[in-house]
Fold this sequence. Notes:
It is found in: Cell membrane. The chain has ten helices and no strands. By secondary structure, the protein is an all-alpha fold.
Amino acid sequence: xxxxxxxxxxxxxxxxxxxxxxxxxxxxxxxxxxxxxxxxxxxxxxxxxxxxxxxxxxxxxxxxxxxxxxxxxxxxxxxxxxxxxxxxxxxxxxxxxxxxxxxxxxxxxxxxxxxxxxxxxxxxxxxxxxxxxxxxxxxxxxxxxxxxxxxxxxxxxxxxxxxxxxxxxxxxxxxxxxxxxxxxxxxxxxxxxxxxxxxxxxxxxxxxxxxxxxxxx
Length: 217
């Protein structure tokens, strides 16, 4: 075996600088996806044209690979529209749309899990529908599905490993640069594997604490 971990050590900080890129992208996409998921969950419950559009959107983004979506949005559409946008814009849009599609069903389950008696009691007291939605349905739905949302966030951090295809300086992109510079492959990819594993272990630990706290409350 021709492993050169000693020579690789100076490149470790450069590769690890990709971790904040992953976290920031995942947080941004998860936040936007949460809003999209809520909108789609209410649209599907209401039905009609809006429900049909929401169902089609969810079906499309859950039925196609995120890698293909990202390549299509960043490479194919600009050719059609004769306009280029930065890689980070493509990443946030695609990952937000993906997150929204998956969270929509999670949100719908959370809404369905709310005690109908609370809503009926609020209506009997003359509370407006928008206030019922804002003060009763949304807070309880989010509380019900928070563990599932956190799991989606963890999955999102793993899916971001494809963003190097559009030039984002994440872990994989930085590892590829090191590979091309010093012709090491095992060492940088091992660091990337360990980094993703530890990152998601930390996030899983935070998620388990959050879930226990919600059960306790």
